[in-house]
Design goal:
Shape: globular
Distance between the termini: 30 Å
Largest sheet: none
Radius of gyration: 22 Å
Order of helices and strands: HHHHHHHHHHHHHHHHHHH
Number of strands: 0
Number of helices: 19
Strand content: under 5%
Structural class: mainly alpha
Length: 395
């Protein structure tokens, strides 16, 4: 009951903070944004809706300028609506929270797209570097390698030019940094569950259904890896590990789902429209498709898999796994945590569960949903790396 009470309090505080921060962002007069919005839209129109970074891998390195342009255009208010109606409507797109507007509108008040992309790129470079440093410091070099290879396999360089793709990765990296820098906050199970509940909620607030699962998958891999390197926790039962795997996934899903549902309800009341009905119609379409976009699950899974794992990536990952296995065998002790391997494999298959739930969305947008398999890559590499005995106990 205490956990339910804390979860409820955190949920309402988060919803309040979302409404408050959006209100502050939308209080900026449009006249400060208009010139930068106009110049940014011109850049998008010059580049095209879906330009590619690497013509040799066209589908895997597309920019989603179409959505980025939409995000910039939606930053302008509908002057027929009140301030509260504007933050719920987001200029006719009320199904999502559009939390990215909390920082996009202030940025557009000061600069246009070129400078905003530089800020995004700089922030991502810094976060990836800092997270890699603390991953290696708290665990070992092997998880740092696994982390960077997982991002490289997903063509993360594209993120530096795309607000649409970057938002969820930035959130994930900040969440991961908290886990690594403040380990004392995660000493008990309830704190861990509240952490994943909050991440799920924040993922729904900031993201437009790109690859939200990575905000659960990457931190849970790190959490289990930390435990696998701690001799005191290596002997905990497999059942306990699976319980953590399921409960963190459940709390993340509840945070994500309730936050989305709350937006539909609040916007329905304020806008006097049936946003809930519209949202559920979209859910049916995103899961099962329609006559115009018929669903082919096997083809969808193949498209996502082949984009993430071309032959060169499979070879690179196989070599890395072989090296990790060799190091585990060479440095073997009586405490190889084999019981963790199954949990890492369970984490690795979660993207394919996600694909089958949101099957039509994953089919139409496979050219970016394939990156959800960052979780798969990181979990598999982490599973092999966790077999390498630690030089010191992680405290």
């Amino acid at each position: 009951m205490k956990l339910i009470k804390k979860t409820t309090i955190i949920f309402f505080l988060l919803i309040f903070s979302y409404c408050l921060t959006l209100t502050i962002a939308y209080s900026i007069p449009d006249r400060f944004l208009s010139s930068h919005v106009t110049s940014s839209v011109k850049i998008f129109e010059k580049e095209g809706n879906y330009p590619t970074i690497n013509s040799a891998n066209e589908n895997g390195t597309k920019l989603d300028n179409f959505t980025d342009k939409l995000m910039v255009k939606k930053s302008m208010k509908d002057h027929k609506l009140s301030l509260v109606e504007n933050i719920m409507s987001i200029n006719g797109y009320p199904r999502y929270w559009h939390g990215y507007q909390v920082f996009l509108r202030p940025l557009l008040a000061a600069m246009s797209l070129g400078s905003i992309r530089m800020i995004y790129a700089s922030l991502l470079f810094l976060l990836i570097g800092i997270v890699s440093y603390f991953l290696i410091k708290r665990t070992d070099i092997y998880l740092g390698i696994a982390f960077l290879l997982s991002l490289a396999a997903a063509n993360v360089s594209v993120f530096f030019f795309s607000m649409q793709f970057s938002n969820i990765l930035i959130l994930t990296l900040f969440a991961l940094l908290l886990l690594l820098v403040k380990p004392k906050l995660f000493q008990d199970k309830s704190s861990i569950l509240l952490y994943f509940f909050s991440i799920g909620s924040l993922a729904n607030f900031f993201d437009l259904l790109t690859t939200p699962l990575i905000s659960w998958g990457i931190p849970i891999v790190v959490l289990f890896y930390l435990n696998s390197k701690d001799v005191k926790k290596q002997d905990t039962s497999l059942g306990k590990k699976i319980e953590i795997f399921l409960s963190t996934g459940f709390f993340w899903s509840i945070g994500y789902g309730l936050t989305w549902l709350s937006k539909w309800i609040i916007s329905s009341v304020i806008l006097k429209q049936n946003i809930v009905k519209d949202a559920f119609n979209q859910i049916l379409f995103r899961t099962e498709g329609n006559e115009k976009y018929p669903l082919h699950r096997l083809a969808m899974l193949k498209d996502n898999f082949t984009l993430m794992y071309p032959k060169v990536i499979i070879l690179l990952l196989a070599i890395t796994c072989f090296i990790f296995l060799y190091l585990a065998y060479k440095n073997r002790t009586e405490h190889l945590p084999f019981q963790f391997v199954l949990v890492f494999l369970l984490i690795a298959i979660t993207p394919y569960i996600w694909y089958n739930v949101l099957a039509n969305h994953s089919q139409i947008h496979h050219w970016f949903t394939y990156r959800t398999q960052i979780v798969t890559t990181f979990a598999i590499l982490g599973g092999f790396a966790c077999l390498i005995p630690p030089k010191k106990i992680v405290k």
